[in-house]
Amino acid sequence: MRIGLVGNGTIVRRFLKDAAGAEGAETTAICVRERSREKGEELAREYGLRVFTDYGGFLRDEEIDAVYVGLINTCHYKYAKQALLAGKHVICEKPLTVTAAQAEELADLARERNLFLWEAFKLPYGPTLPAVREHLDRIGPVRMVQCSYCRTGKAYEEYLAGSVRPVLDPACAGGSLYDVNVYNLHFVMSLFGTPDQVCYTANHGKNGVDTSGTAVLQYNGFLAVCTAAMDCSSDNFTMIQGERGWIRTEGPISSASRAVLCADGKEQVLAENPKGGSLEPEIREFVRQFQEGDRKSCCEMLKHSVQVMKILDALKNGI
User: Fold this and answer.
1) pLDDT for position 274
2) Confidence class for position 26, pLDDT limits 50, 70, 90
3) How do the domains of the chain map onto residue ranges?
4) Do 124-277 and 2-120 fall under one CATH topology?
């Protein structure tokens, strides 16, 4: 599968690096803004890419099968839609869009045109989530779920100093809900489906962005409490508590290093994922679906992505 990339940020660089190890994936071109041409040419030299500064010309390139959209959140819908209309398959960074209506429109467009549309997030393609799902019944009826994904970094340091990056700019759909807590939502909803009720309470920065917050998802018989932050750090984990035991994943759920089960007083390691931060497994799966024409798997994940966007819509009302 020949992949053209849009953008030149950190996630695009990671995608290029990890795609090099994914059999069947070939990165062929990159599209950047004119003012970022130098950065684009630097990546082109390193990875053997052709450089475009015109998105229309990029989409007309017949040596591109799929477009990877690695731009700020508010650009996902526009660039993904244009790519689908041009007959390209699309790999779009999370969150897929910034509203559920946009996500549904893209999903419908992909189905109508018999194209693949993937939301790029690592969780479904590593060993952690399948292991948790397989052993969930061993802990009995679930009563509580806790998810913590809290991190600080250079973006927040710059924010405090007065320089606002898109990840902390509400005008760019930045903030802890869309950039961090979305991982927790994907985890919980992958296991338990759509919650009955939701609410969101957040801490706000000087520009109104949610720098940290907690989403509470109410299911029949239990609650899932999802906390995420960009203004503080924590021991990141998920914990599923049942009447007969618990399952815990260690590290940020986007790249959890392992999953542990405790049932009947005995602990058991269910899965280990030392390279949890790699994008290679998801890229390999996208290539497999493309090569085998497995649209069923793609559609199942896309339905899940749309449901997550609907819950994000509901939670956003609490910001």
Assistant:
1) 82
2) very high
3) 2-120, 124-277
4) no
Please return the burial class of 48, using the count of CB atoms within 10 Å of its CB with bins 0-12, 13-18 and 19+. exposed
- Biggest CA-to-CA distance, the chain: 61
Across the beta sheet with 66-69, what order do the strands follow? 50-52, 26-31, 2-6, 66-69, 89-93, 117-120
CA 58 to chain centre: 25
What residues are paired with 269 via a beta bridge? 260
Q: For residue 97, is pLDDT > 90?
A: yes
Q: Measure the CA–CA gap between 93 and 111, rounded to whole angstroms.
A: 19
The angle subtended at Cα 26 by Cα 39 and Cα 65, nearest 5°, is 95
Superfamily of domain 124-277: Dihydrodipicolinate Reductase; domain 2 (3.30.360.10)
Rounded CA separation 207/180 (Å): 18
Q: Which CATH class is domain 2-120?
A: alpha beta
Structure tokens given for 169 = 């700019």
Question: Could you give the residue numbers annotated as active site?
Answer: 94
Query: Does residue 218 register a pLDDT over 80?
Result: yes
3 state DSSP class of 265: coil
The average pLDDT across 119-144 equals: 95
Length of the chain in residues, anyone? 319
